[in-house]
């Protein structure tokens, strides 16, 4: 039967970037497969999260899109034998960054072809929360509020939306009581944000959990306690390079399971907003197979 793969294209990703390169990417992928199915939709919720829309017995599902598209693909591939291939074409591309996938989409397409030819697969951990899988970071507090606001902004384009959202949230945000329960300890504290990292990055390259390793079976948790606006302004530039860990308001934990209870705080996972006041996230080792 040969190698059979599906390419899911999310054309609105990256202000139309995915749609513009979809033909070139498909041509490159055909060099490494015997049959390529093309799946395209303007609705990121429709594909590839719907298993009925995909052929059976795929050798790989490849996603051309951003982190939102990848999040939906993860729901299909998690806890199955179907490997996931990543071709980043979005604003953040944080999972690709965290897994060392080339951020240039054509280079990533070539890497997928090589992995298909050589059958080079690797297992990675996933988080599981409220019936949903996540691959990068689950967060609550200031950072989730920033993500929510950035997702609703239409200007400016690209990663600068996060900069505008940060400034807007700084004006009103306050630390709140939070309870964090892990398989090792229980904390009651006032906090500004909590980030549970399976991989290091969120928010288009912010290294919130610098030491998170998606192959160690554990989450890395970054907790920012009570912080003033001045503290946040000093912390935020360091997020790009993981230098925030030295700030006295920052504490880190490692755990297989984390429960967060924080009334009134927004929560998001992989940049997707969650509707819950309390969540328990569990790290599931080797729940996803990726190409490369």
TrEMBL record:
DAGKc domain boundaries: 1-133
Keyword terms, alphabetized: ATP-binding, Kinase, Lipid biosynthesis, Lipid metabolism, Nucleotide-binding, Phospholipid biosynthesis, Phospholipid metabolism, Transferase
Cofactor(s) listed: Mg(2+)
EC number(s) reported in the record: 2.7.1.107
GO molecular function: ATP binding; ATP-dependent diacylglycerol kinase activity
Pfam families: DAGK_cat, YegS_C
PROSITE patterns: DAGK (PS50146)
Family: Belongs to the diacylglycerol/lipid kinase family.
GO CC term, one of those recorded: plasma membrane
Keyword Lyase: no
Protein name: Diacylglycerol kinase (ATP)
UniProt organism field: Amycolatopsis endophytica
